[in-house]
Structures are given as C-alpha cells and as structure tokens.
Design goal:
The protein has a domain of 61 residues: Head domain of nucleotide exchange factor GrpE (Nucleotide Exchange Factor Grpe, Chain A, domain 2, Roll). The model has no long low-confidence stretch (mean pLDDT 88). Helix 2 packs antiparallel against helix 3. The chain starts with 5 loop residues before the first helix and ends in a 7-residue tail after the last strand. The protein is α+β, with helices and mostly antiparallel strands.
C-alpha cells in the first residue's frame, strides 16, 4: 500500500497546471511583499533601538543630574575663591592650590562630557539666561558679561549661563 504525502491530500498542486507567467508573477508579488515586510521590521528594530538608547540616556541624566549639579556648585565656589584678592604669600599659595583644584575639577568634568556653554556673541535663550541688560555700544542682544557659567552634558543643558546682555544704542542716555 502506498503512503500518501499530507501535502498531496490537502490541496492539489496547481503549479504544474498553472501558466508559468502567472507563477512568476505570483512569486514576484510574494517576494515584493516579503521584502516590504522585512524593510518595515528593520525600520521598527532601528526605531526601537533608538528609543531604548534615548531612554537610557535620559535615565542616566536623571541619575547623574544631582551629582553634576553639586560638582558645578563646587566649581562656582572655587571660582569665587579665586576671585578674592591675594595680598600675602600665604593667600597666594592658597590661591595656587585652589587653581590646581579647579583645573583638576574642570578636567574631570570634561572627561564625562560636561562642557562650558559659550558666552561670546549673541544671546541664545536655549543656552543663556539674561539676568540684566547694560547700555553700551554693542548691538542689542550681544552678551557683554558672564555672571555665572553654564554647562552642557552630552549636548543637553545642565545649567544655562547667566549673562548680561547689551541693551543696544537706543537705550543709551
């Protein structure tokens, strides 16, 4: 007795009876469909991967933000200490130590991609916080002084720079 193949009993094969051109068109359509599915799946994978990376970066920033804020505050205190006048040999030696400490802190911050916000040129509300305007010969909106440095981490603003901005020629009295 001959065993029957399950494929033969389920449905008769039409490929042998079908026109070869129809079969080719059917296979090309199926190939195009599979290629479109593959491209969609690949795009979905890339989008998922990008979203996961963004979520990871955001979580890392949320975790590091308090530490970085405290380190930036330490940098501010060191800058204030360096701004104090040094008249005695002891104060000059202390200032040298503070300068070395400030330099090492800056180096450590740069190693983790914390960068100073530029404070030359025109005011940019995404990077700067204008806390005062000053009359002067500069064009309106030009940064004339940095009151507190700003910082970015991996391109994101950690703290905007506080700046004084030129009021322009119209407001001179």
């Amino acid at each position: 007795m001959k065993e029957t193949d399950p494929d033969e009993t389920a449905e008769p094969r039409t490929s042998a009876a079908a026109d070869p051109d129809e079969r080719v068109a059917e296979l090309e359509a199926r190939c195009a469909d599979l290629e479109a599915r593959w491209l969609r799946t690949q795009a979905d994978y890339q989008n998922s991967r990008r979203r996961a990376q963004q979520e990871l970066d955001s979580a890392l920033l949320r975790t590091l933000q308090p530490l970085l804020d405290e380190l930036l505050l330490v940098a501010d205190y060191l800058d204030m200490a360096l701004a104090a006048p040094t008249t005695t040999p002891e104060s000059k030696a202390l200032a040298t130590g503070v300068e070395l400490t400030r330099a090492k802190l800056s180096q450590a911050l740069e190693q983790v991609d914390v960068r100073l916000v530029r404070t030359q040129g025109l005011f940019d509300p995404a990077l700067h916080e204008a806390v005062e305007t000053r009359p002067g010969p500069e064009a309106a909106g030009t940064i004339v002084a940095t009151l507190r440095p700003g910082y970015t981490w991996q391109g994101r603003i950690l703290r905007p720079a506080r700046v004084a901005v030129a009021a322009g020629n119209d407001e001179q009295g």
